[in-house]
Design a protein that fits this description.
Radius of gyration: 20 Å
CATH topology of the largest domain: Transferase(Phosphotransferase), domain 1
GO molecular function: ATP binding; protein serine/threonine kinase activity
EC number: 2.7.11.1
Structural class: alpha+beta
Distance between the termini: 24 Å
CATH superfamily of the largest domain: Transferase(Phosphotransferase) domain 1
Protein name: Serine/threonine-protein kinase PknD
CATH class of the largest domain: Mainly Alpha
Pfam family, one: Pkinase
Shape: globular
CATH architecture of the largest domain: Orthogonal Bundle
Strand order of the largest sheet: 1-2-3-5-4
Keywords: ATP-binding, Kinase, Nucleotide-binding, Transferase
């Protein structure tokens, strides 16, 4: 868990430099936070504004690749245009002589939702107490609010998973990584996108999928893809994100991913054709409410027409589960 930096009064007093620095020269103390198949995320200090920020750049070996640049800029601009309390603000998009194209975002202290679920699975008492079922439902509902906002603006996320849900230290819930987003009316570079710019390295994709409680690396994206994504259907709509949220809900309740197979091919086959039991049958010790079972199983229907037809409908259904928990507390 990261710690929120303190405000240093002396950092608020200096005058602006005579010549404002360009590119990433205005940021000091660059420190790598995460690295993936084509991008690097760093923290840095903006010495003009006086705040800590997150900076995303392409890897040195991909920074001049036209396709990667196009996707990267699309991610930056989609993220910047989705101005919502549950999305991360983008402060700047630019080009640096050394690092290439970059975009700068708000740095939010906290951790991703998957880390929280792992600790709950390990029965960490502090985490179990801090994240009862009602709180976890709130996290998913806030994620859905960001998706509802995006859908209203013609954007499908396509990579909703616990790793991309950031839970801040002060109650913030942010849906991250719009690198695989589908913008209606735009082509997909003639290939289905199955991993984000901060996804795992390609040589990890063929490794056997590990269990949630095993603590190992996992190619998380395939576990949450909708049947239409797996089948390469380019006409996907918001109901694909609804399916992915349903898988997140299932995992949040049962602490198991419903479609996990021995490898990615088997996982895809499970997503397309396997009927899974409701969360309460998968994890009978978790005391999962019957209403939660109903909501999850509707969200992960194979046919889009059998799911919730809008993210707002799913938000309302999650709210009903939470209301039931308030009046009849049964927190696993």
């Amino acid at each position: 868990m990261t710690v929120e930096p303190s405000i240093i009064l002396s950092g608020t007093d200096p005058d602006l430099p005579t010549k404002l620095p360009s590119g990433l020269q205005r940021y000091t103390g660059l420190k790598e936070m995460a690295r993936g198949g084509s991008a690097i995320l760093r923290s840095g200090f903006d010495r003009i504004v006086g705040r800590t920020v997150a900076i995303k750049t392409l890897l040195p070996e991909t920074k001049n690749d036209r396709k990667e640049r196009r996707r990267f800029l699309r991610e930056a601009r989609v993220t910047a245009q989705l101005q919502h309390p549950n999305t991360v603000p983008v402060y700047e998009i630019g080009n640096d002589l050394m690092y290439g194209i970059f975009f700068v975002m708000k740095r939010i202290s906290g951790e991703n939702f998957f880390e929280i679920l792992k600790r709950i699975a390990r029965k960490d008492e502090a985490t179990v107490e801090a994240f009862p079922l009602r709180r976890r439902l709130d996290v998913v509902a806030d994620t859905c609010q960001a998706l509802a906002y995006a859908h209203a603006r013609g954007v499908i996320h396509r990579d909703v998973k616990p790793e991309n849900i950031w839970v801040g230290n002060f109650g913030e819930v942010i849906l991250l990584d719009w690198g695989t987003a589908k913008v209606w009316g735009h082509a997909d570079d003639n290939e289905p996108i199955r991993k984000s710019t901060l996804a795992q390295k390609p040589d990890q994709e063929d490794q056997q999928l590990t269990t949630l409680t095993g603590g190992g690396q996992r190619p998380g994206t395939p576990l949450y893809m909708s049947p239409e994504q797996v089948s390469g259907n380019r006409g996907i709509d918001e109901r694909s994100d609804i399916f992915s949220v349903g898988v997140v809900l299932y995992e949040m309740l049962a602490l198991r991913e419903p479609f996990r197979g021995r490898n990615i091919d088997e996982t895809f086959d499970n997503i397309r054709s396997k009927d899974v039991p409701p969360p309460s049958e998968t994890a009978p010790d978790r005391q999962i409410p019957a209403l939660a079972d109903q909501v999850v199983m509707k969200a992960i229907q194979k046919r889009p027409g059998d799911r919730y037809q809008s993210m707002r409908d799913l938000i309302a259904a999650i709210g009903e589960i939470r209301d039931q928990e308030i009046h009849e507390p049964q927190d696993p």
